Fold:
Amino acid sequence: MTKAAEQHSEIVRLLSKTLAPDASHGGLADIPLEQRQQIQALLDTSARVSGGIFMYIALWLIIAWGTQLISLNPTLVWSFTAWLTAIAICRLLLKRAFPTLIVKRIKFARRALYWVVLVNGFSWGLMTAASIYLTELEPMRSAMILVAVGICSAGSMAMAIDSFLKFWFPIALIFPVALGTLASNTEGNLLLATLAFVYAFYLMFSIHSTHRDYWRAMHANAQFERASLTDALTQVANRMSFDRQYQHEWRRASRHSNELAVLMVDLDHFKQINDTYGHQAGDRVLQHVANVLQNALLRGGDSVARYGGEEFVILLPQADVEGASTVAQRILASVSTHSIKIDNNELRITCSIGCALAQPHEQTRPEDLLKLADTALYAAKAAGRNLAYFNHGDGTISPIQQQSHTSRTPASPATRSCDKTAKTA
Structure:
């Protein structure tokens, strides 16, 4: 396993522990997409710059030895070596703590990464400027400038994916060099300063394409992920998206000792609609009902997903019996009162709902709540459809009383023609 893969695995483990200490599942999928992109970008940036942790020390010692500076000015050589070593140790410690920091304190992790990288580049820029300004350091001037250009090019390309570092790293490295050349007011140094500024701006412009391509790919992956989690027909969440969200809400409810409600919604006589009006009409009905269900959910945390075929599932975090029952009543009324026009016929749809609620803990399983709601749904079907039943989890299943004006909406002629031939839901 590569170091990048090990770091990613460590972050997934820490996310699992942070988001759900009592669960074996979890990871980057449990947090919002935008935050996942930020984490991934920071991970990629950290991985790209980690190769240069000890590079500055090695290059400095090679230059000091090759130019005989180590014997001419040992105090300067070993002082700067100690400074570069201190920075390298900080970067190494940050690298090891990064998986923990990025999960628990992402802003601090980002700022710490910025500081150690910029201080490293700025330090090299200052020493390069000193080699230009101070005559006693002239023997290493060419080597320092050459290395500074190389570090600036390679470092900027490595950090191109980060909007902050791609701009400030070349400035932190080249700006001291330009100031050093301007301070030593000679014709050659003025030319060198001009070239340094031109090079820095050209470099920032050229790495923009790398930054753009990275984030284009990131957004394309995000769009692909959204598409993979969305039902293509109804444009609500699909089964895979629901399973992921359900596991996340289950763990969160368990962690905070909250209740979680599930509503299974099944369209009545949907097969007969397909047989009578065709599958395209059935698709329109599914789209219509999905839109009605979304509009019936008034809280931001509630969600609807297509569970399969003509069946939808609704997830209600932090809901009690009364709240879940109210939502079920609202859905029954909304679905039955919003008709859809097909082949010049006003088709009025009804649905049956099974509702269940639980407070997750170690002795309960997520699939148990779904089974309770599914059992309540079958009870609603058996009782005559266009009903909602509540499974209390103790063996009792009771009807959810609807308001009198929406209790049983008369079927339209089109629906009645389907009902006459319907034998199964």
Q: What stands out?
A: Residues 14-29, 404-425 have pLDDT under 50 and may be disordered.
